[in-house]
Design a protein that fits this description.
single chain; about 120 residues; alpha+beta; six-stranded mixed β-sheet; 3 helices; about 25% helix; globular
């Protein structure tokens, strides 16, 4: 099953969060998440905030896109949506990534994050 991965934009994956400091923002068609991935973990899980990004542990190794694929699957499964609605927008070779989640609102994402112990200000 092929996943759309946008070409890397070096400026977008390395900048931290938005102007208001939140790693989640509403965009046309859904939300964007700024994440920091820890590949090779013992299990996939939310791990709080790290440097203004949502830290997500992924069991897959960072080899041949396996960690990226596992990240997309983890986010989709956690939000109860299909993997085709989660797109890696930038950071394909970096631990800092930007994801677009289609047809999901900020409230749903906040609920997911807070249920995993990741509390956002505001």
């Amino acid at each position: 099953m092929a996943r759309r991965i946008a070409p890397d934009d070096p400026t977008s994956a390395t900048t931290s969060a938005t102007a208001d400091g939140l790693p989640v923002r509403s965009v046309p068609g859904g939300v964007e998440l700024d994440v920091r991935v820890q590949p090779g973990a013992s299990r996939a899980a939310l791990a709080g905030l790290h440097a203004g990004r949502i830290k997500i542990r992924i069991a897959a190794p960072p080899v041949d896109g396996k960690a990226n694929e596992a990240l997309v699957e983890f986010v989709a499964r956690s939000l109860g949506i299909r993997t085709t609605r989660v797109e890696l927008r930038s950071g394909t070779t970096s631990r800092s990534k930007r994801l677009h989640v289609a047809d999901v609102g900020l409230g749903e994402v906040r609920e997911w994050l807070e249920s995993g112990g990741c509390h956002l200000p505001g």
